[in-house]
What we know:
The structure holds 2 protein chains of 2 kinds. Chain A is globular, with a radius of gyration of 24 Å. A two-stranded antiparallel sheet of chain A has the order 1-2. Helices cover 78% and strands 1% of the residues of chain A. Chain A is an all-alpha fold. Chain B has 14 helices and 2 strands, in the order H-E-E-H-H-H-H-H-H-H-H-H-H-H-H-H. Chain B has a two-stranded antiparallel ribbon with strand order 1-2. In chain B, helix 2 packs across helix 14, helix 3 packs across helix 11 and helix 8 runs antiparallel to helix 11. The radius of gyration of chain B is 24 Å and the shape is globular. The two termini of chain B are 16 Å apart. Classes of the chains: A mainly alpha, B mainly alpha.
Amino acid sequence: MKKNNIFKKILTLYIPLLILLVFILFPFYWTFITSIKVESELYGQATYWPKSVTFDAYHKLFTTTINFFDSMKNSFIVATETTVVSLFVSTLAAYAFSRYKFKGRAPLMGLFLCNNMFPTVLLLLPLYAIMRKLGLLYTHISLVLSYTTFTIPFSIWLLNGFINDLPLTLEEAAMIDGCSRGKAFMKIIIPILGPCLVSTGVYIFMNSWNEYTFAMMFTNSKTRTIPVALKNMIGQLGVQWDLLTAGGILTIIPVCIMFFFAQKRLVSGLTAGAVKG
Amino acid sequence: MLDKKKITPYLLLTPALLIMLLVVLIPVLRALMMSFMNYDLRRPKDIGFIGLMNYITLFKDRLFWLALLKTVIWVGVGVFFQFFFGFILALLLNRPFRARGIVRAVSMIPWVTPGVLIGLMWRWIYDGNFGVLNDLLMKIGLINKNIPFLSQTSTAFPSVIVTIIWQGIPFFALMLLAGLQGVPNELYEAAQMDGAGWATKLFKITIPSMKNTISVTVLLRIIWVANSVDVIFNMSGGGPAYSTQTLSVYIYNKGNALDLGYASSMAIVMAILLSFIAIPYIKSTFRSKV
């Protein structure tokens, strides 16, 4: 009986899981070994385990005209600025939605929700024209502003859910002790909300770090972010796959690390709406 | 409510509303305006209002209708299989086994990977000369000569669809897993006593109890997949011979060519079409949240 159970578990759990995981993870494995293969091995008979390992591609990313470091710096600046601006604005708005009853609350919440539905291209075209007129094209500000179109609405909904889960008695107790509402917010709500703010921040950072559609049109060789730099490695002379995959690996490592730390709370925040609703 | 001051919530909302006014409301109005204009930045002298001309052109544009058809297939097939495999993954991850936490976290990696990288990674996998997929298929004996997956019209579109399916599985698994964990255990116990098999449990208990999660996730995903530009753009750019050009990609290509007027009119049409899908989602979320 017991043996039978193990056999059943292998057949219905481990084997399908293994197949799905191989499908999901193989592209990453392939990307990684491409980045450490020597050129002759790269463009020949495919090998599934590199015969010789080299980190030349990673070295070249930083020492040649590709100047991957500049792109990383640009991405970091844009993503950080987007995160700070979005978090600040969204926390205030989410607090208002969660703790106050006021005229226009429902339509305003609906407005923010609708925002997630706009086709990216619908905003991209006029924003391009506007940024061009304002002389903001090819600056970090143009990207930060564009990214707030999706980060702010999303963060408001995420944070609204988190704040709704905090009991109102927290502020009431502080106010009985003589705190003003604002002080109660700063001293009580913000610290408790800390981990949720971090998770939301990770989500914003991740999305800005990865964004390509706006970045391709709104940056030039000086301000280009990583996704654009990756694409630019496809030149007229073909693709330098070793460099491109090395750049790709360096791009996902920071977001993966951040995601692993933030995933638990982020997932509960993301799924709360769908599951409870 | 603690606070009697009526103005506080509005003050708190002001920064968010100001930014949204600047980056969403004004741009949408501007897109609407541009859609009635000849607005080609390569020919700035000819910029001016042309009434419904763009919409008439669009109606007669064979490529627009082709792109619309491609979008329907892209979204329909893509989201269906994302859901299908995502659901299987969620069911598997919902069962107890060792190292489940790690497996769960690792299987989410495609979700945090930039779309441009996904496009490029898969482009390398599909490569006609040195691509690993050709090598694998050759080893199994399914093919005897390399297939240039992305450069022939018959294989390019299925290839990009496989990539979007791959990208979307984790998100579905994530949402559906949360839904699964919300299904009350007593239901299964009762069914067990009645001697129900796994299929009965799945279709009579699991899926009905998750109706809400499923519909919200599917709707969200439809909108995201329809809007997705970066994957296709970096794999095939819409080619060969427009075989992978969805509406988003077509609009993006026109935008890149700086023909903002015509691109805007297509974007407006697309927004209207998507709103048919988005409005039920907004309504249902509204009922539960506000």
